[in-house]
Write a structure and sequence with these properties.
By secondary structure, this protein is mainly β. 0% of the residues lie in helices and 50% in strands. The protein is built from no helices and 11 strands. The strands form 2 sheets. Strands 2, 4, 5, 6, 9, 10 and 11 form a 7-stranded mixed beta sheet that branches. The chain has a 4-stranded antiparallel beta sheet with strand order 1-3-8-7, with no helix packed on it. The chain is globular and about 40 Å long. The N and C termini lie far apart (40 Å).
């Protein structure tokens, strides 16, 4: 089992940047593929990006390509989400999640085993 805690959210103007962190504790972090999802009020949880256990595989949603970068530091049990050129439509609660090996279900939130509590990102216009 792994526990996940997100941090780094906040209020930023359009065009600004934020860096989210997701700190993991518990069972070996490096055995999990990780994903970031977001959920805006009244909307379904949306895939943002995923990274494999060793960082060799990445997959980005089209809506964030070129603006968001995922990385992980297995020595620090942490995954990061660098968000640049933020838009008001990026406003949401951002969640990190963990699952087993990289597979074809990385974009499907229902396939993830563990979730953090989320961190709010608000982008003002």
């Amino acid at each position: 089992q792994v526990q996940l805690v997100e941090s780094g959210g906040g209020l930023v103007q359009a065009g600004g940047s934020l860096r989210l962190s997701c700190a993991a504790s518990g069972r070996a972090f490096s055995t999990y593929a990780m994903g970031w999802f977001r959920q805006a009020p009244g909307k379904e949880r949306e895939f943002v990006v995923a990274i494999s256990r060793n960082g060799g595989n990445l997959y980005y949603a089209d809506s964030v390509k070129g603006r968001i970068t995922i990385s992980r530091d297995n020595a620090k049990n942490t995954v990061y989400l660098q968000m640049n050129s933020l838009k008001p439509e990026d406003t949401a609660v951002y969640y990190c999640a963990a699952k087993g090996p990289w597979d074809n279900g990385m974009t499907n939130y229902r396939t993830y085993e563990y979730w953090g509590q989320g961190t709010q990102v608000t982008v003002s216009s």
